[in-house]
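Single-chain item
Fold in token form
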Amino acid sequence: MAFETVLFEKHAGVATVTMNRPEKLNAMTWRMIEEFLDAVEDCRQDEAVRVLVFTGAGRAFSAGDDIVDGMGERTRGGNPGGVNADRGLHHQLVKALLELPKPVVAALNGRCHGAGFVLSLACDFRVGHTDTLVGDIRSARAIFAGQGVPLLLPRLIGQSRAMDLLMTGRVIDATEAERIGYLARLWPRDTYEVELKAFLEELAQGPTRTYAAWKLTVNRAVLNELDSYTDYERALTDVVRQTEDYAEGRTSFREKRAPKYLGR
């Protein structure tokens, strides 16, 4: 299996997917998301893999979808604009992670935004160090691309806090992220690698099928709702993309200036 945008390694029951576009803060392309899906399927089939961890090369976990250089070509799934369109690769990834009968960890080695935030929420554990910064941020540019976040985030941190982060688009530091329940583990920067290794080894040596039972029962309600929720979300996404504010958000981003929204 050839990977171009990620590094995929296995050792002692731990499979590691490292997003490998550090010069772009690991911004995601369609190819990267497809490689995520390939790695998840590989881990599902390989009984030697007991835990899967996602992380990023360089100083970021992921800045989100690559809206600067573009997402590139999508080589699987239905035509996103066609009659037989599927629910999208982000939906497939979220569903695959929620259904994977093994623990999945998002190891946040730096900034985590947009689609990177989506990926982290689909994992079972989010861990980080004291320099970690997180936030969806897309609302600041009038982007509505929930990709499962409005379904997953309130269950994790509560509706009020989820509304705060999603509507304001603000970025929070690691201390606040742990306090509100987003981070399950927070370690000092200088001991982060050692602590992460120990945590992953603990999971890899645990009762994997018991973990799977807990995971699938916890995720059952979300999985039962995910498809219909995604259909509703996509309908709202189409509405937002027709607004003047959405166009202004994109224009202001390209022009590197503060947006001026008119509420329409």
